[in-house]
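User: quick one, sequence for these C-alpha cells?
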C-alpha cells in the first residue's frame, strides 16, 4: 500500500510541475484578406498589436486558435477608434459584425 501511495503522489506532483512550466494557453490570431479565410493571411501570434501593418484596414475574416481565449479588434490604432469587437473562435465574415476592412489594432 505504501508504494502505491508514493507513486500516486509522485504522479500528481509531476503533473502539477508540468502545468506550471507550460503556463496558460494563449490564442494565436490570424487575419485574412478575404471572407472565408481567403487571400493573404497575416499571423499576429499571441501578442498585442498597436498597429496591424500590411493588414491595416484590409482584414475580412479572422481565426482565433484556442476557443477558450479571445481577441479584440479595434477600429483605431493603439486600441482606440470608435468601434471594437471581441471574438472567441474567429469569424469567417467580418461584415456580420460591421468590421470588414476596419481593424487597425488588436489584443
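Assistant:
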Amino acid at each position: 500500500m505504501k508504494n502505491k501511495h508514493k507513486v500516486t503522489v509522485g504522479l500528481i506532483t509531476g503533473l502539477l510541475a508540468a502545468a506550471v512550466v507550460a503556463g496558460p494557453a494563449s490564442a494565436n490570431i490570424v487575419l485574412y484578406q478575404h471572407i472565408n479565410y481567403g487571400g493573404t493571411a497575416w499571423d499576429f501570434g499571441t501578442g498585442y498589436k498597436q498597429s496591424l501593418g500590411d493588414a491595416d484596414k484590409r482584414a475580412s475574416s479572422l481565426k482565433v486558435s484556442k476557443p477558450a481565449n479571445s481577441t479584440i479588434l479595434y477600429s483605431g490604432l493603439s486600441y482606440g477608434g470608435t468601434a471594437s469587437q471581441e471574438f472567441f473562435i474567429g469569424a469567417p465574415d467580418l461584415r456580420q459584425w460591421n468590421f470588414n476592412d476596419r481593424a487597425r489594432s488588436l489584443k
